[in-house]
Specification:
Length: 399
């Protein structure tokens, strides 16, 4: 494209943006502004608040892990499981019956199996003779026969094997993700992604430790699953940040942090849609499948997923992106731009929809424009264009 064409394009964008800056802003609802990417939430400016909130949550989680640990399921510690038709027996009846064997602390619950209420008892490992006595006692309590009692003995080696494989998978996953993000974007984006992942895993593990929820192999699988979601949401934001990096300049009045803030607002609706879409089926698994229909085996998986999805959505917006801005503004180039932007009066506020319309009307160079709170505009070249002066009405300003 020739120099004359560039000047004409820039002039067209300038005229369009200046005209938009003069037009009175149309009031929109929060949902409409979210849909059109017109929100101006200051995520980066309040990053200390988000960091403090996350630091407190992570410290609580780590403190609980150190002092309380996990309530590991039978697959990790080993033990004996009895499953039989409950009949008229309740959980309290079963606990009283097991008291004479010193198993009053056993995990006892009822579950629905094809319309038949069953009693499930999990205890620590016991010898075979005592196990047979417990089987006979439970059969007598519920009115079932001994043959109807399903007895399983689980060793701790199976849970240990699952844990080792999960840990290996986690390490490989982190290495591959780091390599991919570094090659696709840059190292400075890989670091916040890893921090957000550790944050999500720590929060999820902390909730399990604080509430005493049982950790099962399904919990481990769910935690590995939420890592993928956490990275996906962060990559969407980083892709937009990478696209908008060209807008960072002191003459354009935008620092790296301001550009990241603009990118977050532009992708906020997409992040919310993604999170809500992911949370709906998981919420259905937990509420409808587990709590209402009685499929309790889904509870450990769905609950870990639910906590992890909430944490992942939070960390991609409030941890990864602000941390990226913090790291990049330590680089000499972006630190100098930020200093000069602050010396010129502060950040230019982005207006994504206006910039998009202006660029489209000019033939579209693919570069976004920005407005300075309605007072000035920034052309694709980065030059700040003051708004046209308004004509004074006769008799002074209207009241």
């Amino acid at each position: 494209m020739s120099t004359t064409d560039d000047e004409q394009e820039e002039q067209a964008v300038t005229d369009e943006l200046a005209a938009q800056a003069e037009r009175p802003a149309k009031k929109r609802s929060i949902w409409s502004r979210l849909y059109h990417g017109e929100t101006r939430f200051d995520f980066i400016g309040r990053r200390r608040v988000w960091f403090i909130i996350s630091a407190v949550a992570v410290l609580l989680s780590l403190g609980s892990l150190v002092t309380r640990g996990f309530q590991l399921g039978i697959d990790f510690e080993g033990g004996v499981v009895w499953e039989l038709p409950a009949g008229d027996a309740s959980v309290a009846d079963a606990r009283d019956a097991l008291g004479e064997f010193g198993l009053s602390s056993a995990t006892i619950q009822t579950q629905d199996n094809d319309g038949v209420e069953e009693l499930r008892v999990e205890s620590e490992p016991i010898d075979v003779e005592e196990s047979d006595q417990v089987t006979a006692k439970l059969a007598d309590l519920t009115g079932a026969t001994v043959d109807e009692v399903n007895l399983n003995e689980v060793g701790p080696s199976w849970g240990e094997e699952i844990s080792e494989k999960a840990l290996r998978a986690l390490v490989v996953f982190l290495v591959l993700v780091t390599i991919y993000i570094t090659l696709r974007f840059e190292w400075a984006m890989a670091v916040p992604t890893l921090v957000a992942l550790i944050h999500d895993v720590a929060i999820t593990a902390g909730v399990y430790s604080l509430t005493g929820l049982e950790v099962t192999p399904a919990t481990v699988i769910a935690i590995l699953t939420i890592l993928g979601f956490s990275i996906y949401d962060g990559i969407v934001v980083f892709d937009k940040v990478d696209e908008n990096t060209r807008l960072v300049s002191s003459t354009g009045g935008m620092s790296y942090g301001g550009m990241v803030n603009m990118s977050l607002n532009q992708t906020l609706m997409r992040s919310l849609n993604t999170s809500i879409t992911a949370l709906l089926p998981v919420g259905s698994l937990l509420v409808v499948g587990s709590w209402i229909m009685g499929a309790t085996t889904l509870q450990e998986f769905a609950l870990a997923l639910l906590i992890g999805l909430f944490s992942g959505a939070y960390s991609s917006i409030f941890i990864a992106s602000p941390l990226l801005a913090l790291l990049k503004e330590r680089e000499p180039r972006y630190r100098d731009i930020k200093r000069r932007v602050e010396a010129r009066g502060g950040e230019v506020v982005a207006s994504a929809s206006g910039a998009t319309a202006a660029v489209a009307s000019s033939g579209g160079s693919g570069q976004s424009g920005v407005t300075n709170g309605g007072d000035s505009v920034v052309a694709p070249s980065g030059r700040v264009i003051p708004a046209r002066p308004r004509k004074k009405s006769k008799g002074g300003p209207r009241r």
